[in-house]
Amino acid sequence: MENRFIHLFANLLVIGLLTNCTDYKNLEYKKAIDLIKKKNFEEFGYVLDDKKENVIKIRIENTESLTSFPEELRAFQHLEEIKIKYCNLNEIPEFITEFTNLKRLIIEGNPITEIPEYITECKKLHVLDIENTDIKELPNFLKKLPLTGIQMKGSKVHGFPKILYEYDSLRALSLNELDELPADINTFNLNILYVSLKSFKYLETIESLEILDLSDSKGASLPKDFGKLKKLKDLTLRNCKNLVKLPESIGNIRRFWGLILGGCSRLTALPQSLTNSGISVLHLDSCYNLRTVPKGLRIGSLTANYTKWKSIPNGIFYSSCQTLKITDHQITNITGISNMYNLTSINLSRGKIKKIPDEIGRLKKLRLLLMEHNDIKEYPRALSNCPNLKSVRLFGNPVYDMSELNDI
């Protein structure tokens, strides 16, 4: 009898210990964080609320060994954002319904195949990111959620799902490649759109757009009235290899945070009207055939890597650029660079430049000059006329001599 009681007590003790070990809902957030850290995820981060009392955001990325949502997350009852990207998650767990404040669920890059219906219990969910997952459809029950952003580029969801018409407040959308947008796309009042298109038809009707990414599209030209998108702040046309020109109306857009044209290998010129626009960042990477840009462009930073340019396109040296980066080129002559009198940083590395012209001494704001791996044989004393110059790097040139550079 005594042995039976001892055995029963031992079993109860084990059960109690196991229960305590898995009672994550009552675990202090600091202990839960420590437990997660011990799992040695490749990338892990979290954000606390203003009072430093609750974890409101969690981030885990690039961990192939992670196949399910960590149970420790249940300790964070005030979570507003869960971001688990490029792991090996195969499902969204039912305990996600415990996060009543959840606003953003980002599961990009996981082999998840379906969205469970219990996700509708997360009644505050505004953003759902299923990019690069194995999910094949947006189920109808999702219309119960107040979604304002749906990202599904790279998923198995193709076309323009009809359920999107159920959302009056949809503001951000990413889609897989389409032949063209629906004719009534303007009814969505989108602020953000990511999509590859075979035709750019109807784009000009979405006048609410602020961020537009058309990377890898196959269209040859943007709509003539593209300039109607006057709220647009960020335009990405990366790897639009069939694009031959930008419309003159683009100059009606007064300010670009970013104008990304990298990989638009058939572009030969930028329209004159762009001088009406302020451009914080202009990317021209791999724009092999670009020959002309309008004089007077107002640019903060210009980047053009891997261009194969043999000469600087006409007009570039007459922009008000502050940062100039053109690398992996075949340029031999940079005469005229002094016209870019606002330059603070120059990187013209990995090319065939033979000489730094004396006119560079007129660049009074210049702080950094990188011209590594060119064919420069002579060090210009005119650089001593650049009062703010802090660093000159000429490694890989015939002139390279550290003792001489140190005399600046």
UniProtKB/TrEMBL annotation:
What PROSITE patterns does the annotation carry?
Answer: LRR (PS51450)
Tell me the domain of life: Bacteria
Keyword Amino-acid biosynthesis attributed: no
Q: Which GO terms describe its cellular component?
A: cytoplasm
The residues the entry assigns to the signal sequence are none
SMART domains named among the record's database cross-references:
LRR_TYP
Q: Which InterPro entries match?
A: Leu-rich_rpt, Leu-rich_rpt_4, Leu-rich_rpt_typical-subtyp, LRR_dom_sf, LRR_domain-containing
Give the keywords, sorted: Leucine-rich repeat, Repeat
| Protein name per Swiss-Prot or TrEMBL | Leucine-rich repeat domain-containing protein
Organism from which the protein derives: Flammeovirga aprica JL-4
